[in-house]
Amino acid sequence: MSKSVRGVVARAKGAPVSIETIVVPDPGPGEARVKVQACGVCHTDLHYREGGIGDDYPYLLGHEAAGIVESVGEGVTEVAVGDFVILNWRAVCGDCRACRRGRPQYCFATHNATRKMTLEDGTELSPALGIGAFAELTLVAAGQCTKVDPEADPAAAGLLGCGVMAGLGAAVNTGNVGRGDTVAVIGCGGVGDAAVAGARLAGAARVIAVDLDDRKLEWARRAGATHTVNSTSGDPVEAIRELTGGFGADVVIDAVGRPETYKQAFYARDLAGTVVLVGVPTPDMTLELPLLDVFGRGGALKSSWYGDCLPSRDFPMLIDLYRQGRFDLDAFVSERITLADVEAAFEKMHHGDVLRSVVIL
Ligand SMILES: NC(=O)c1ccc[n+]([C@@H]2O[C@H](COP(=O)([O-])OP(=O)(O)OC[C@H]3O[C@@H](n4cnc5c(N)ncnc54)[C@H](O)[C@@H]3O)[C@@H](O)[C@H]2O)c1
Ligand SMILES: [Zn+2]
Ligand SMILES: [Zn+2]
């Protein structure tokens, strides 16, 4: 039977979000309905509200979530009612050209629920990143539910579902940071700080955090940065070179996604080093670089989608490290709020007052 619950909806481009009654259908074949316990506020939710991602209003926002499986549809074997799960936006298909070549982290046909959640008048909702978890219940493909240790705090665990995984994976998976490497991270929001923590976990010898805001640099130190650079008070490329024997870092991660930060990342890396772009640029941005420098400096210029993660492989492992006290996921939870506070949380994010506000349901 379908159920009516409360959810946070963006009805029109640029308009403040509102709490609406949403109708969540029974799970269809291969689908699961999840009782959401916690959901983080990500920059991407704000992008949806502002029309930066698409025009498929109304959107049901929220996608960094953890909760309990409430019911499952026909043929679901991945999860069962009562399982504690983190929701993911990479339920791999197993059948596309990437999956068939053994690279499921690039799956080009990931699964979402096919049944539609609606407003009371029947208007279909577009769930953010195929999730829509600023709601008491949500409907997803069963493969979007990754079962993890139920002892984990849902507010912290849910953050692995997007930003924290993207940043950590940018360092560990895409950048392939290893023991003894020097790493620089430009932009220390939730994503950048997760990259800092990932570099630290992977055994980096030096982790240099760069931001414009001293508060953010302080938080980056807590995440594991060994050095910090405020780029309002000097050239960050020079500062990173100075901190790396004059050479530059082995891996530089751009967690902002602007032409100027990308250029800093490009020139702040050592010869044969790696640049990882995880911040998301906007369509108006272009990049100009001397092609000779691209050639002459060698190495790899990579982009990272969702930290090249495989939820089934990475979420349970990271929750174990968290539970063992080796990865401080709690540090990313700046405040706990209600569904009614999402609009205010966007404002705080905009002003850099939080790493993550987390809605508790
Ligand atoms: N690739 C992915 O799969 C993926 C997933 C989630 C989020 N993202 C993207 O990652 C980016 C960061 O997300 P977030 O949640 O950490 O955002 P955020 O707004 O919390 O953090 C951005 C940080 O960058 C800093 N900054 C801005 N301009 C700077 C500059 N010129 N130099 C140095 N620092 C600068 C800000 O002070 C802030 O601390 C966003 O673009 C987001 O859309 C990507
Ligand atoms: Zn696939
Ligand atoms: Zn996100």
List the helices and strands and how they pair.
Layout: E1 3-10, E2 18-24, E3 31-40, H1 43-49, E4 59-60, E5 64-72, E6 84-87, H2 97-100, E7 118-119, E8 126-127, E9 137-141, E10 145-147, H3 154-157, H4 163-174, E11 182-186, H5 190-201, E12 206-211, H6 214-223, E13 227-230, H7 236-242, E14 249-254, H8 259-267, E15 269-277, H9 291-296, E16 300-303, H10 311-323, E17 335-337, H11 342-350, E18 357-360
Bound molecules: nicotinamide-adenine-dinucleotide and zinc ion (2 copies).
One zinc ion (ZN) binds at residues 92-93, 95-96, 98-99, 107-109.
Brief summary:
With 361 residues, the chain is of the alpha/beta class.
General description of the model:
The protein has 361 residues and is an alpha/beta fold. It has 2 domains: 3-161 and 328-360, Alpha-Beta Complex (Quinone Oxidoreductase, Chain A, domain 1); 176-304, 3-Layer(aba) Sandwich (Rossmann fold), CATH 3.40.50. It is 26% helix and 26% strand. It contains 11 helices and 18 strands. The strands form 3 sheets. Strands 3, 5, 6, 9, 10, 17 and 18 form a 7-stranded mixed β-sheet that branches. Strands 13-12-11-14-15-16 form a 6-stranded parallel β-sheet, sandwiched between helices. Helix 5 (190-201) links the parallel strand 11 (182-186) and strand 12. The two termini are 22 Å apart. The mean pLDDT is 97. The chain binds nicotinamide-adenine-dinucleotide and zinc ion (2 copies). One zinc ion binds next to loops.
